[in-house]
Every structure is written in C-alpha cells, then in structure tokens.
TrEMBL record:
It comes from Antrodiella citrinella. GO terms for molecular function: manganese ion binding. Pfam families: Cupin_1. This is Cupin type-1 domain-containing protein. PANTHER family: GERMIN-LIKE PROTEIN SUBFAMILY 3 MEMBER 3. Residues 1-20 form the signal peptide.
Amino acid sequence: MLSSALPLFIAVLFCSRTHAFTAGESEAQEVADLKLAPTANDRLNLLNPDSNFVFNFTAARTGGGAAGVVVTASAGNFPAVVGQHLSMAVGFLGPCGLVTPHTHPRATEFNYAINGSMTVGMLTENGARFVSNTVNAGEAVIFPEGSIHFEMNLGCDSMIFVAGLNNEDPGVNSISQEYFGLPPDVVAASLGNATAEQVAQIEAQIVDNVALGTDECLQRCGITRTKQSTTQRVQRVASNALPSGFSGPPAPPASTAAPAGVKLAGSLADDASNSSTKLRTLDIVLIAVVGALALGYVAILISYCARRGKQNKNGGNKGIYTRPGAAYAPGGGDDSEKFMAPGEAAPFESFQPYSEGGARTTPYDAPSGAL
Ligand SMILES: *[C@@H]1O[C@H](CO)[C@@H](O)[C@H](O)[C@H]1NC(C)=O
Ligand SMILES: *[C@@H]1O[C@H](CO)[C@@H](O)[C@H](O)[C@H]1NC(C)=O
Ligand SMILES: *[C@@H]1O[C@H](CO)[C@@H](O)[C@H](O)[C@H]1NC(C)=O
Ligand SMILES: *[C@@H]1O[C@H](CO)[C@@H](O)[C@H](O)[C@H]1NC(C)=O
C-alpha cells in the first residue's frame, strides 16, 4: 500500500512545485524551471505574484565604475524575460561617463538617449569603417550584434540611456578587460615588440565600467581623473598567468555570485530563506526511499528466481508445464499454465505453491483432503 501511495505523493509534490517559485530558490533554478515549462501559460503561473513581471532598475543601480553603472535586466537576474527573446539595459552615466568599448556576443543593441547627449562609436567587423555619432536626447542608435562599440556622456551633468537588446541573454565582452586577460606573452607578441611585463603593467590599470571619459570632456567639465577601481579584469589561471615576479595588483578572484548591482524584482528579490534547501533535502530523502523500494523489488525478484532455480533442481529440469483444465478444477479451472513435477497424479492435486506455509495461490479452491 505504502509503495503504491508513495509515487503518487511524490508526483503531487513535484506538480505542486510548478505552481510558483519557491522563496529563495536560486536564480538558475528559476530560469531552469521557466525553460522547462511546456507552455507560456505554465511560465505565467511560475511568475507569480504579478510583481515578477516588473524590474526595478533604480533599485538595481549599484556597483559599476567611477562614472556610473549600466544595469541590465536579462535572464541572469530577471527570469520574466525567459522565452521573450529580449532584454533591456539602462545606463546611468555620470558627467563624462564612458561605457568602455565592448561587444554583445548574442544581441544587437538599440540605444535611446533619455536625456543629455552622448558620443558613440563602433567597429562592426574587420574591414568596416569606424562609425561615429552624437546621439541627443530623443534619438536612438543601433549597434549590430558583435560590433565593438562605446557610449560616452558628452555633458557635465549625469544622463540616462535605455537600450533594448534582442536576446534574453545578450552577454557582454569588455574589450580591454578581456583582451588583456589573454596570456601576456600572446598579447605582447600581437602588439609587436612589447614585453609581457609591459602588458602586465597596462593590464593592472584597466578600470571598471562605467569609467571616467576622455581628457577633453574631463577638462571641459573641470573634473579630475581620480584613481578608479580595477576589479573587472580577467581572473588569472595557470595558462594566462602574469610574468613571474610582476608586482602589479592581482586580478580579483572569480566570483560565483550574481553580478554586483543586480537585484531581482518582486518576490524573487525577497529573502534567501532556507525553505528551498529544505525542499531539496526532502526531494533527496524521497528519491532515496524510492531507490530503496526499487532495490526491495529487485531483492524479491532475485529471491523468487533463486527459489525457482532450487525447485528446478529438485523436481528436475525434467519438469513439465501442464494446463489445469475444468476437468480437474471443481468450479471451473483457469487457462493459465502451471509448473508440474513429472509423475504426479493430476496437475491440480499435485500443485505445490512456491510460498512457504503451503497456502494455495491458485485461483480456485482445493478439493477437501487435497494435499
Ligand atoms: C524601486 O527601487 C527604489 C530604490 O530601492 C525605490 O525607492 C522605489 O520605491 C522602487 N520602486 C517601486 C515602484 O517599487
Ligand atoms: C537626466 O535625468 C536624471 C534623472 O532624472 C537627472 O539626474 C539628470 O540630471 C538628467 N540629465 C540631464 C542632462 O537632464
Ligand atoms: C624591441 O625592443 C627592444 C627593447 O625592449 C629593442 O632593444 C629592440 O631593438 C626592439 N626590436 C625591434 C625590432 O624593434
Ligand atoms: C540557511 O541555513 C544556513 C545553515 O543551515 C544558515 O547559516 C543561514 O543563515 C540560513 N539562511 C537563512 C536565510 O535563514
């Protein structure tokens, strides 16, 4: 009884879990649940309550560099975009703030200046000319997928841009940070006659995005270029290590946490309670129980086969199968075949149940005095 009720219970448990995210469930698990959902309606039910459809860019406006931050709402921090094929970035640029040159490996960007003006530029691919523009409030510029591009606030006041990206996981490849994160001797060779030490010295100075912009802008706005943080550089492993003895600041350790300045909307941003951990534990226990049951069934099967083998040995492999017909069975027989040892009077009379204690397991009653 238990063994038949348990799978049902487990099924109910798993089904109930699909109705909404569990509080504190990991971002990756939520996105995985959404991607596995068979229909859009199933995704809608997972995104419960309604606030899961709203992303607060203002609340997520932390981190970044000395001159601002770009906040992106994408599959990495906003599960509602899963299945929608787009994401959105909002740039909060301080005076002269430069979004350092970068590409989006999986998306074209359509960037709209809310207020203020920005100078932008891009290189779409080898052989393409450099394209440059000034984009004023109320205008938008397009950066094709994969193009190297930058945006810089031309003004001495802060400004905001909003960019649509046609992929829920657009990705960013920051050119300076990534290029100088390659093996220093390879970078040195690609620069001609540079040394790995020179490369390492430059690499150690690569500032975080959004960075202070050009000298022209800073001077115009009366801004001094202060020392900026350099935490976005590539993590070093053995195969791209800096020259031994290099005394520059080490790149920060790789972080497994969500990008800084990124928060979830609605209930997804709520407490990281331990309920999901508990649920996971329950799942594991249930899986163990089911596994034990399966092992039990296997044990029963092995036991059955062992007895069967023993009987074969005793009664002989000379045993025959007979069909106990109506002639032998008062009240009607059945058509199933029964194993019978040779030389026994009648199939019905001589039937030996395998189970101990001699209880009959045939579907008909034994005649009185039988056995
Ligand atoms: C968005 O976040 C900001 C900062 O946390 C907060 O002041 C504001 O009330 C939030 N907006 C809404 C609509 O909740
Ligand atoms: C743009 O909007 C932001 C936020 O309201 C404001 O702080 C900033 O001063 C504005 N910039 C310009 C150039 O109007
Ligand atoms: C390369 O640089 C070294 C100094 O670092 C210099 O002595 C050498 O002449 C340079 N070679 C070429 C081909 O420029
Ligand atoms: C979750 O559990 C761990 C260890 O059991 C504990 O250290 C942590 O504070 C808990 N987190 C919350 C949010 O309760």
